[in-house]
Predict the structure of TetR family transcriptional regulator.
Amino acid sequence: MTKAFLRARRPEHKQQRRAAILDAARELAIRSGVREVSLGGVAEAAGMAKSNLARYFATREEIYLELAAQEWKDWERAVLDRLAGSPAPDTLIDTLTGTLAERPLFCELLSHTVTTLEHNVTIEAARRFKLVTLDVQFTLAKAVAQACPEFTGNEARELVAAAAALASLLYPAANPPPVIAELYDREPALAAAAGVPFEPAMKRMLTAIAAGLPTLR
């Protein structure tokens, strides 16, 4: 049951409402997966009517696109923290891979971004999201190039972008839907052949990309 809605008048109150909506959407996604969450479900979890939620977000995709932007920034902080100690080049792949593996919601949002989340949003929401992702990529590229001087700035950015792209592809494969998971349980040989272990696969593919980038100059 939704609570009686009181319109937020002051900017800080509006921000609190937006934060409450995002928190509710995050919890629902963690519990049941992004695909299963509806706008009505978010509204109910946030304690407001669906029509009132629309004052803050036009669609469920806008909610999750903003959550994705938050996750990009969180990933940025984690990578920068680990690279701050000037790690050896061979630990760079572990850093990028490990910080992604620790963020399943981020990986899930990455997997939905191009196929779903960018398809039903306003220009303003799309622009905000793109500016965040580009800012994160350039910031991380600078840190990667400083930690590993064998990469140019462009190569470092390509490596960061490749890490996110691989995560978007490998995460759903490593976390299949219930029907595929049951199939793998019934047929272990099929699981061994078709199953994808997320972190090892990420590390191997990203290592190959990192090794190949300088050869393409």
